[in-house]
Amino acid sequence: MPNTRTRSCAILLAALAMTSEIVQAQGLASHVHGNAELNAVSIGQQMQMEFISPAINLLGFERAPITAEEAALLNDVSTQLEDGDWLTGDALSDCRQTTQAFAVPMYDEQPHDHDEEHDHTSPDTGPEAHHNFRVQYLYDCPAAPPRRLRITAFEHYRGIESITVQWIAGQQQGFAQLSASKPELTLE
Question: Model-level pTM?
Fold first, then answer.
């Protein structure tokens, strides 16, 4: 018989997968410059968060790095995202955080120019590719995670104008649209 922690992790993963499918079905998983996505699932003493953002929001460009500074920026952003402390500030500092999944953009050799206002859903291949960062964190907390979280992504990445959030907390689920002037996520 599986232990409680294993069962909780399985429930969190299933709920997050379901949330991701809902987001994609609603078209929120499309590539929109300035917008990032956050899926959050809180059950018991665990919280799982998945953050997805177009590369341009975090890097300021959406092509292979050209200069040494751009290559260093890509490396710095990748390191920060993989670490996980940047997303919620101190709100989950008592929790043990692990990175469950991490994907950085894979660039082809051709630069990518296009109108930044378009909503794109094309795959991440070819000269018209759109590149996303995707990271999934699991927080294992000594008590139930807080129901109010200040999302600090706006402080770290000026290219993020809004974050579309899908969340599940216990028996509740919801949707939120966050911005730099309204960065607090309430899971109620």
Answer: 0.76
